[in-house]
Specification:
The protein has 218 residues and is of the alpha/beta class. It has one domain: Alpha-Beta Barrel (TIM Barrel). Helices cover 36% and strands 20% of the residues. It has an eight-stranded parallel sheet. Helix 7 links the parallel strand 6 and strand 7. It is globular, with a radius of gyration of 17 Å. The model has no long low-confidence stretch (mean pLDDT 97). The structure holds pyridoxal-5'-phosphate.
Length: 218
């Protein structure tokens, strides 16, 4: 079942798009099943859960932090995390930089952009993202790289609205990708989940984050 779902989704992906298996709340045995089916990118939204699972899976798994990240928890994932999708301010970036330096690493980060028509979701506005990318404080951060943007569309059946939100994020991505700074190197646009990944692919996603369509409802 898990393998079938993964193979089905992967068969739909264009060359520039990769699948992140979102494994939050799922037991390690299910992650191992996804790994055996060829998955190497895993997404978790809770630091503690990711840190618990990481040593139980093979070392070539790339761990993606997709949920809101508190500064005081960065240290638990800094030794191994592959990409942090949920950066929403320079303070958090400074803490990620500090913990990355302690581990002699450079940690890749995405700026989370608020694109949904909902108050409850985290993220920066387009203006806030633009000003973050021109913040002089970035110059001191040699142990992070900002490699793109992430967004969550509104939870709705209205495909027109979802597509419009993804298009807005892609437009912002294309604009900010022209920013020239040593630690800004746009390559990833993280958008699309179980319910809307097909639309996201059509609108230019490079990373889809799919949980329930692979592992069942949570
Ligand atoms: C849980 C989660 C997903 C996956 O959601 P599904 O609808 O199960 O595919 C994707 N992105 C984020 C940020 C999530 O928290």
């Amino acid at each position: 079942m898990i393998a079938e779902a993964i193979h089905q989704i992967e068969s739909e992906l264009p060359a520039q798009t990769r699948l992140i298996a979102v494994t939050k709340t799922k037991p390690v045995a299910m992650l191992q099943e996804a790994y055996n089916a060829g998955c190497r990118l895993f997404g978790e939204n809770k630091v503690q859960e990711m840190a618990d699972k990481q040593p139980q899976l093979p070392a070539d798994v790339q761990w993606h932090q997709i949920g809101h990240l508190q500064s005081n928890k960065v240290k638990y994932i800094a030794p191994f995390v592959s990409l942090i999708h949920s950066v929403d301010g320079v303070k958090l970036l400074q803490e990620i930089n500090k913990q990355a330096a302690k581990n002699n690493r450079v940690i890749d980060c995405l700026l989370q952009i608020h694109i949904a028509d909902e108050d409850t979701k985290f993220g920066l506005s387009a203006d806030e993202a633009e000003s973050l990318l021109s913040d002089p404080a970035l110059d001191a951060l040699n142990n992070i790289r900002i490699t793109g943007l992430m967004g969550l569309a509104t939870n709705t059946d209205d495909e027109t609205q979802i597509r419009r939100e993804f298009q807005g994020l892609k437009t912002l991505y294309d604009k900010l990708a022209t920013v020239q700074r040593p630690n800004v190197l746009f390559a990833e646009l993280s958008m699309g989940m179980s319910g809307d990944y097909k639309l996201a692919i059509e609108e230019g996603s490079t990373l889809i984050r799919v949980g329930s369509a692979i592992f069942g409802a949570r």
